[in-house]
């Protein structure tokens, strides 16, 4: 199925992990994809790999906390591919520590990348999509923003903030036929979870009703649904991709 034929998509933080899986699934479904990451080399390699598979991809380095860089990223998609139909705000980091040990810098840095980054991406894409009277924005939150995770006061706060941002933006942009939704993944097999202490990860997986860790493609398929016209009457929702964890 070519659900996104003729559409152009931007995916932040897509040099690897969930972002790369999203870029790949969107491109395999017909989209021209801007692969973007703070890791310029990684983004260039990921875009080259997609092109080698016969898919359309452009690498644009971007730090999502940099206002001018995010505006330029969206502009690069519009000038190269002619439109911005899908914006996926995915870039993220963790700086896990209990609150007793967490520095203010750890807190601010994580909130800045996730929440400010998603706000800048939503605003930049929303401006273009409003004029097009078409578009779908997908913000990657986390089940940690619903339930709260030990050692993640910064991350959980940022991911819960993304839900508020998504719903408020969905209300503002609905009259322009622009939809804004969020996805809340549970534990997914990426570098982010590989960095967790193994016993903590095992405990987490044991608490997943479907009995396994998620794969990046599980998240990417949910994003494809929200990005495509299959979800044409859906805006302002939070789609959990967590195997039933914290349902
Ligand atoms: N892995 C999980 O279990 C899980 C669960 C829930 C939510 N998420 C969310 O999914 C998203 C992707 O996570 P992942 O597991 O693939 O992580 P990852 O660490 O594998 O990939 C994150 C990517 O974001 C990039 N990045 C970091 N800071 C950036 C910045 N300032 N500007 C642009 N790019 C930046 C990194 O270079 C990296 O390529 C994140 O928002 C994360 O919070 C992950």
From TrEMBL:
Pfam families: adh_short_C2. Keywords: Oxidoreductase. The keyword Glycoprotein does not apply. Residues 7-191 form the Ketoreductase domain. One of its GO terms (biological process) is fatty acid elongation. NCBIfam families: PRK05653.1-3, PRK07231.1, PRK12826.1-2. Belongs to the short-chain dehydrogenases/reductases (SDR) family. This is 3-oxoacyl-[acyl-carrier protein] reductase. It comes from Thermostaphylospora chromogena.
């Amino acid at each position: 199925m070519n659900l996104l034929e003729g559409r152009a998509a931007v995916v932040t933080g897509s040099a690897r992990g969930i972002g790369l899986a999203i870029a790949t699934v969107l491109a395999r479904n017909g989209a021209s994809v801007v692969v973007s990451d703070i890791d310029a080399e990684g983004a260039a390699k990921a875009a080259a790999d997609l092109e080698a598979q016969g898919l359309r991809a452009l690498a644009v380095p971007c730090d999502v906390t940099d206002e001018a860089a995010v505006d330029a990223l969206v502009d690069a998609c519009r000038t190269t591919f002619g439109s911005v139909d899908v914006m996926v705000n995915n870039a993220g980091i963790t700086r896990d520590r209990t609150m007793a040990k967490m520095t203010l810098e750890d807190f601010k840095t994580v909130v800045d990348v996730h929440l400010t980054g998603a706000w800048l991406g939503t605003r930049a894409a929303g401006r273009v999509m409003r004029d097009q009277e078409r578009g779908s924005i997908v913000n990657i939150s986390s089940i940690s923003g619903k339930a709260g995770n030990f050692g993640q006061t910064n991350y959980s706060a940022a991911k819960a903030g993304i839900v508020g941002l998504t719903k408020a933006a969905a209300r503002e942009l609905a009259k322009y036929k622009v939809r804004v939704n969020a996805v809340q993944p549970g534990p997914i097999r990426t570098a982010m979870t590989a960095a967790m202490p193994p016993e903590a990860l095992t405990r987490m997986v044991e608490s997943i009703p479907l009995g396994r860790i998620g794969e990046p493609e599980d998240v990417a398929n949910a994003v494809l649904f929200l990005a495509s016209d299959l979800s044409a009457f859906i805006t302002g929702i939070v789609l959990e991709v967590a195997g039933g964890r914290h349902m």
